[in-house]
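To the team - adenosine monophosphate complex, inputs and output below.
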Amino acid sequence: MRLIFLGPPGAGKGTQAKLLTERYGIPQLSTGDMLRAAVAQATEVGKRAKAVMDAGQLVSDEIVNEIVSDRIDQPDCAKGFILDGYPRTVPQAIALDKMLESKGLKLDAVIELKVDEAALVKRMENRVAETIAAGGAVRSDDNPEAFRRRLAEYREKTAPLSEHYAGTGQLRTVDGMADVTAVTAEIEKILA
Ligand code: AMP
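Output:
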């Protein structure tokens, strides 16, 4: 099972991807998580990506395409994977198509979580409050200003992906404003 999740920041892509990893026994590949790990380890990629990420902007296509291509080659991806936060631009989607073709792989579905953008800032604030209450570390790009820039980046660069995947016939849309279990049930119906 090879899936892509689309949707603006805070739409619940990560939450749904995590639930599906347990159900299907395949890993969630979050480019955001991979980049944050690179930043934490101060690798070359991490050093190049940090300022861009903190500003809520997108890291270059070249960097993320390479990270994803290497990750897909790992043995735990043999049964499939869930891409969360990638592709994020039309050129990334085209690179992914080529990458999968060169590896002899195909996508099973592209699932878009449709959400009300006005509700997203509130969700982000709740996520920050919950993380702090649980004693966790808050992401450096989880503040209202960076969040608004991430939403603007989404509208400009990522939203056109819906059209791209509608054109390939792979796009499935789910109401991301429903509660978590209802969204999961909708997705499972699509995948059944
Ligand atoms: P996320 O955890 O998916 O919200 O990603 C956090 C940040 O990592 C984004 O705001 C970008 O700066 C960067 N990032 C993650 N995935 C990508 C991607 N596919 N293309 C470019 N930048 C990305």
